[in-house]
Structures are given as structure tokens and as C-alpha cells.
Amino acid sequence: MISFFATQITQAQTKEAQIAKIRKTYTDAKKEVDNNGKNGHKNNVLQFLNYDQERDETPVSMEDIQIYYAYDQSEPKPYFITQKYKYGDIDIYREWLFDSSGHSLLFIYEHKEQNDGKPIDIRYYWNDGNLIEKVSTTQNLEPDYHFILYRISQQFVRMFETHMNRDL
């Protein structure tokens, strides 16, 4: 029984330490994003804009994806991705944070403005491809919603790699 509680405490400390490290990485990444293209810093951002014109009764949508990257041994690696998405009256803003390899997801943030005007904020913390913590202002989420956002991040990484590796 004592070993069970000791294991639980160790796991909690490990999880808290992992989340603290992710938060520090996030703070550092946001500083890099804010300095991107300023004060002698290189402008290392790849932007994709998607617009959907109104068809029949389909609301107009707009998507702005910005992939911030750094060079690791002359290879570009994405470290931070933002997505602003507007579909009709719904506004969504998302962020994805990656480790220095550009492939291991650490954090997802999503902010939505609902039709009733109430905002929803969701934060997901990841370690080695596993969800370790979810913090949300709502409980009305699909059970696998975090995997949907995880898959979207992988699509953006593939878009980035395809664009950066194309022959110009």
C-alpha cells in the first residue's frame, strides 16, 4: 500500500515538473515569436492563408496558419504554430508548441468564441505523444477532441516539410 502512494506521489511530481518545463518552453517560444523579424532576428515564419467564398448557404470561412521555425543543423524545424480560423460567426484561435526536434508535440491551446459570447479555453499538455493534462473552461468536449487537434498539428508539420523541401 505504501509503495502505491509513493508511486502516485512520484508520478504527480513528475507530471508537475513536466508541465512546468512545458510552460517554460512555451514562454521562451512566445518570446521568439514576438521577436520574429525584429531587432535583427530572422523572419522565420511560413504563412498559409485559406479563404472559402460563400457558396449557397455556406458561411464564408478564413484560415490563417503561421508556422514559426528555427534551424537545427541547417534543417528547418517548426517549434510553434498558430491558427486563426473563422467560420461564420465562430472564431477559433489555436497554438501548438513542439520540442526542438519539431516533431514531438508538447502543448496545445485553443480559444473559441461561442455563439452565446462565452469564451472557451482549452489547454492540453503532452509528453512523448501522450496526453498528461487537460485544463478546460468547459466539460462539453468530445472524448477524443485532443486527438483531433493532435492530428491537425501533424498535418501542419507535413505541410511545412513539404513546402520547405520542395525544389524551387
Short description:
With 168 residues, the protein is an alpha+beta fold. Helix content is 33%, strand content 40%. The protein is built from 2 helices and 7 strands; from the N terminus they run H-E-E-E-E-E-E-E-H.
Structure report:
- This protein is of the alpha+beta class and 168 residues long.
- The chain has one domain (2-165).
- The chain has helices at 2-35, 145-165; strands at residues 45-52, 61-72, 75-87, 90-98, 105-113, 119-127, 130-136.
- Strands 1-2-3-4-5-6-7 form a seven-stranded antiparallel sheet.
- The radius of gyration is 18 Å and the shape is globular.
- The relative contact order is 0.12.
Describe the secondary structure blueprint for this structure:
Layout: H1 2-35, E1 45-52, E2 61-72, E3 75-87, E4 90-98, E5 105-113, E6 119-127, E7 130-136, H2 145-165
Antiparallel strand pairs: 1-2, 2-3, 3-4, 4-5, 5-6, 6-7
Largest sheet: spatial strand order = 1-2-3-4-5-6-7
End-to-end gap: 63 Å
Overall 3D geometry?
A: globular
| Low-confidence blocks of residues | 1-10
What brief labels describe this structure?
alpha+beta, 2 helices, disordered N terminus, 7-stranded antiparallel β-sheet, 168 residues
